[in-house]
């Protein structure tokens, strides 16, 4: 297990992945390198020691009390402390990006990754654009200076695909009504219906990091999972990355349940032309299933209001979709409410008057 | 000579007075005219008292009239003429007992057309009928007068007018207090709903993301079975809506009127006894 950082062959500065271009850029001399060129480089290595729980004086306690791991930064030699799950981060002292190779290799080697498509500046401007369009936010609430922290994070996910043979059966009714003179006739036809077939489902996604703020991270989906890339450690340079701490077994039940639900719906949707349909019985046989371990990009933003309250936002690093609680301008909501009150009341009165 | 001139002058004045028709005066007038001598002295006093109460409460003109001979044009025309001849304003009613045709007749004018709708007149005549059948003609009037009082107190009952001559239905445009109340309530509910929707959306109370399983699935159907297992037929008789109401069958809330004697619009109704 080692800690790496990618160095520019021209000047020795740090290389970081630039989302906008998809290339690697040196912070000092601005040289640009492609993925291919990066793969040919040998990253600089630092050293790492694992400290058993309780022994380290200067290692902060993680919530689980599990051992923190201490690494030495390849650039400045300072000790870097990270969580068990952090796979890429920045040196606390010299701010150079580092990749903890051991946490993204072997069993933890991601099958796929979606590299960041939106760079930092782009993300900031997209964010400000998004909030400026929101009509009930206090005017001039959002400005760039108050963005306290903006971190690009690769979160770990399990992506589940499966194919199964499914069948459902039940009863359905169809009604026909006609009139002869003063009498109304109702004919009810009852049917036994069954549907079966092969169903394949893909891209069922589960976040595999226990400490994540699920609501934030889940709601910036969907990611376009057809645009994944083969994993390369270089992508993590300049970003934070976390490895998983939840295994596929933990999600097995929930993905099976979800898949079953979709299969039943898909089949039920093919039963058409009836007044009522009632499914009595369903059966599923799993043919193939596959869990892929994927790293997906999310910009995590902390915003501090002038009053001191902190707001958290997440932005999908591929599509730009934003999620997070917005501050409310009570006055604007009040104005909207009053307007609606007036319009509806007056309309109803006019209606009542003419009826 | 002087006497004749005085008479002519007074006659002329009388004529003038009658010719100018009804002048709108603030207070209404009322009166009993027992042409058919159906009421005793005390009965007349009682009915008169009730009538005057009605007059002073509403400010309209009300008359209780009995006759043996309506002059051939029917009780309705007779009552209308009576109203025209004795009214002081444009609003009021005449309660007529016509012994010649054995008919109870009510005619309404002006605002009374709105208070005494077809349905209300029907009910009033229903109740009065019992008295008429017993020969209690004072009772007839008292019943009619007290019913009328009640209806005036409960407000106008008409939501549309029906012109008998032309068949035209005139909707009455009005805004009752309850309608205003409901409108305001609707407004409040909508406003609150909108505010809550914005607040909830800004506070991120709801999950925005729902997996689009249609986009991410493939179904190849291999088994499709639809088997008819039974049919059953039931039938029922459709209840027919009887249009019982006369005068156009427009249901309650309607008040029928026509252009009657003197060019005035009259409403009302009658019942034989």
Folded structure, characterized:
The complex is a heterodimer of chains A (355) and B (273). Chain A is an alpha+beta fold and 355 residues long. Chain A folds into two domains: 3-109, no CATH class; 120-128 and 141-223 and 247-318, no CATH class. In chain A, 20% of the residues lie in helices and 39% in strands. Chain A is built from five helices and 17 strands. In chain A, the strands form three sheets. In chain A, strands 1, 5, 9, 10, 11, 12, 13, 14, 15, 16 and 17 form an eleven-stranded mixed beta sheet that branches. Chain A has a three-stranded antiparallel beta sheet with strand order 2-3-4. A three-stranded antiparallel beta sheet of chain A has the order 6-7-8, with no helix packed on it. By secondary structure, chain B is of the alpha/beta class. Chain B has a domain at 25-155: Diaminopimelate Epimerase, Chain A, domain 1. Chain B is built from seven helices and nine strands. Classes of the chains: A alpha+beta (355), B alpha/beta (273). At the A-B interface, strand 12, strand 13, helix 4 and helix 5 of A face helix 7 and strand 7 of B.
Coarse shape of chain B: elongated
- How large a portion of the residues of chain A is in β-strands, by DSSP E? 35-45%
The secondary structure category of chain B is: alpha/beta
Which architecture of the domain at 25-155 in chain B would the CATH scheme give at its second level? Roll
Question: What is the number of strand segments of chain B?
Answer: 9
Order of helices and strands of chain A: EEEEHEEEEEEEHEEHEHEEEH
Rg of chain A from C-alpha positions? 28 Å
Estimate the mean pLDDT confidence of chain B: 83
CATH class category of the domain at 25-155 in chain B: Alpha Beta
